[in-house]
Backbone:
């Protein structure tokens, strides 16, 4: 069984974002780029499965739509343990554009399980995985918190509003992953970093397609009012403020 | 042209989220000078369906069928796309909950419609169609233009006020022929949380962090939540340690919530935690460290030891309730 993990290259989650060019573009100065947190968890789970001979997983590939600047993030995925990588050499302009490019490389490479994160921490779109599944006409399951494979059978747990469902699904499919699928993201060891240098990254040029959406500008959230401090000896005052001033209890 | 909303049902019933969706959709329809239709898939009784009319829908499209008992993304998105086309919908609205996130992108491809997900306000403009949405996990907002003829929006939960109208809706029963072979998802087991306020639905949330020190200290926090009719939540390290269930983890990698009131106890307020709670209308912080970043996000704060303050808050709420 072959697994593909689609990875997004995002600013480190502690970044204080700023914008330039009339708030049209992210100011990338000083930004640390990382693998999108959910993609990192998907990759970790894919590698755990590959380590377990009973799963029948034989290879883990990562795919990324992005320009050469994203190479360090791809190398990091290889250092963590992915076997090889595919990079589609294009600016990832929106979810549809990215999904369209991914669908194209999947059609020519064939995978059994394709994993995407439930969202990318930059645009918070929650769209790429589902679009990819529809473009490929594959089934999809979203909000996956557990993925098991035994004797070629896939077992999945997904989160629903107020509960969980366990289900089975034939391959190929697109799995859209949330937290829980792996405990901690795997970290690259020195040996992995050395080996990553010689692992293959196949670069392909994009196919022509129009994005569905565009960002016109960004704005910062409205600043919050200063915090009112309440005497720790008199918490009744807090309850009274919540009841009479904020009117939320 | 029309606005179509899809709402799921929970064992044949709708909830606040459904009414928020319809309220939002009817306001979008007003902007477009058109009407709102709501689609329900599955078995829901007529009086439950009529509830949707109160929030501004003119038409309630009811497609019954046992096949809708289990969420299969291909089946559901085929059905919604089918009805959207019949209704000539120009805007399709779903929730930004797990179901909406599973279906909207598939619909997007089927209808060749761009998506803006997690919107919390009405569109900025209709022509061009520009919406305001969360970006960089709540650290910024983006003005996104949807360029396609049909637009899909997913609405963030608890972000739009419910408005009640005179109900003049009609129910239209429709049938769709769907290929049963389409259903690939086989659900073997369902575990539902019962008797608890759902975190994503809750108006008030009481949340604990590492400052709670040990899983044994949660008693007064839970009692406070019960008294307030609130859901309980926690920071990531707390669920990673297994002190509390994973379902309670809020933040960037956990649940993203927008209650009216979020009480953060012993939580430092890391960016990744705030990413999940910053849309709350009010935040209360209780923390021993007066410099903790949570106080920058909070409107009300108490600098002090949670172990001492929690029991006093419990008493104060009891007193308030007895009045
Ligand atoms: C990729 C990534 C994603 C992440 N996603 C999330 C996420 O989704 N959600 C999340 O929560 N975190 C997330 N984190 C972790 C985040 O960075 C913080 O580590 C975490 O939020 C800290 O949790 P905490 O506030 O409970 O603990 P701490 O940061 O340890 O804070 C404990 C607080 O309790 C206070 N305290 C101590 N004793 C008391 C007392 N007796 N009474 C009152 N206050 C007391 C302390 O002053 C301190 O402020 C993520 C991190 C990464 C790298």
Residues:
């Amino acid at each position: 069984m072959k697994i593909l993990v689609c990875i997004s290259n995002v600013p480190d989650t502690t970044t204080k974002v700023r914008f330039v060019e009339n708030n049209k573009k992210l100011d990338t100065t000083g930004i640390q780029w990382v693998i999108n947190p959910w993609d990192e968890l998907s990759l970790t789970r894919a590698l755990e499965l590959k380590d377990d001979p009973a799963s029948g997983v034989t290879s883990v590939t990562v795919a990324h739509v992005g320009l050469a600047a994203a190479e360090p993030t791809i190398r990091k995925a290889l250092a963590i343990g992915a076997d090889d990588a595919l990079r589609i050499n294009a600016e990832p302009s929106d979810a549809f554009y990215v999904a369209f490019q991914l669908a194209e490389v999947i059609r020519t490479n064939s995978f059994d399980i394709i994993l995407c994160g439930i969202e990318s921490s930059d645009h918070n779109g929650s769209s790429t995985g589902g679009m990819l599944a529809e473009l490929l006409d594959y089934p999809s399951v979203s909000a996956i918190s557990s993925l098991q494979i035994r004797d070629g059978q896939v077992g999945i747990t997904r989160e629903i509003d107020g509960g969980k469902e366990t289900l089975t699904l034939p391959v190929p499919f697109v799995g859209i992953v949330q937290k829980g699928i792996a405990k901690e993201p795997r970290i690259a060891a020195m040996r992995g970093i050395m080996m990553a240098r010689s692992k293959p990254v196949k670069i392909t040029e994009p196919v022509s397609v129009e994005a569905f959406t565009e960002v016109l500008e960004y704005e910062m959230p409205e600043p919050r009012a200063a915090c009112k401090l309440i005497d720790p000896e008199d918490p009744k005052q807090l309850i009274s403020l919540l009841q009479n001033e904020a009117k939320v209890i | 042209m029309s606005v179509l909303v899809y709402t799921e049902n929970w064992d044949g019933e709708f909830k606040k989220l459904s009414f928020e969706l319809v309220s939002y959709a009817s306001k979008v329809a007003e902007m477009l000078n058109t009407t709102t239709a709501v689609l329900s898939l599955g078995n829901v009784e007529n009086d439950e369906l009529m509830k949707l009319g109160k929030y501004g829908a003119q038409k309630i499209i009811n497609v019954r069928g046992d096949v809708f008992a289990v969420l299969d993304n291909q089946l559901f998105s085929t059905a919604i796309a089918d009805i959207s086309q019949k209704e000539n919908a120009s805007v399709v609205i779903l929730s930004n909950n797990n179901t909406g996130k599973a279906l909207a992108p598939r619909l997007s491809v089927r209808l060749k419609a761009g998506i803006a997900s997690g919107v919390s306000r009405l569109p900025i403009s209709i022509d061009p169609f520009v919406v305001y949405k969360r970006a960089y996990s709540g650290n910024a907002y983006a003005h996104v233009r949807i360029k396609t003829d049909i637009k899909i929006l997913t609405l963030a939960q608890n972000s739009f006020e419910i408005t009640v109208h005179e109900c003049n809706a009609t129910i239209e029963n429709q049938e769709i022929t769907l290929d049963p072979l389409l259903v690939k998802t086989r659900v073997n087991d369902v575990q539902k949380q019962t008797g608890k306020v759902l975190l994503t639905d809750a108006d008030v949330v009481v949340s604990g962090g590492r400052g709670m020190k040990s899983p044994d200290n949660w008693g007064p926090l839970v009692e406070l939540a019960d008294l307030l009719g609130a859901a309980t939540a926690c920071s990531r390290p707390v669920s990673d340690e297994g002190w509390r269930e994973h379902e309670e983890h809020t933040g960037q990698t956990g649940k993203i919530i927008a209650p009216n009131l979020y009480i953060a106890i012993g939580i430092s307020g890391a960016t990744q935690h705030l990413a999940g709670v910053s849309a709350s209308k009010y935040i209360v912080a209780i923390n021993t460290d007066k410099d903790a970043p949570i106080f920058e996000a909070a409107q009300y704060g108490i600098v002090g030891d949670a172990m001492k303050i929690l029991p006093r808050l419990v008493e104060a709420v009891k007193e308030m309730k007895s009045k």
